[in-house]
Amino acid sequence: MYADTQTIRKILTQSGDTWAVVGLSNNRSRAAYGVAAVLQRFGKRVVPVHPKAEPVHGEQGYASLAAIPFPVDVVDVFVNSDLAGAVADEAKEIGAKAVWFQLGVIDEQAYDRTRAAGLDMVMDRCPAIEIPLLD
To answer: Less Cβ around it within 10 Å: N or C end of the chain?
Structure first.
C-alpha cells in the first residue's frame, strides 16, 4: 500500500548509495544495527544518525541529519511513528532523494507530504528484506 515494487527498486538501485540511518547506534540488539550491516554488504554507505553521534560499522555518526556535512541520498528511519514525520521533513530540507520508513513506522501525513515534495518514499517495509529480492 505504501510502497510499490517500482518505487522500492528505484530507491534501492537508482537513488544513490549514501543512506543516513536515523536511530542507528552501536546497540547490536536493535534492528537498525543489523539492517545497516546488510545495506553495507550491498554497497551502500551507511551514515549513523543518533543523539550519541557514535561511529557505527566504521562510519562516523552525526547527531542529526542537518549535521551531516555531505549529501545524503536516502534517509532510512528507525524511530517511533510519532517522531518519523519530523525526520521525513528534515530529509526534504537536506535534499535527500528518498525516505524509507522501516517496518512498523507509519505516518500517512508524512508520506503524503514527502511524496508531494517530490521525494520517493517507502513506508512500513525493510530494505534488508527487499534488497536481496532484487536479483
So the answer is: C
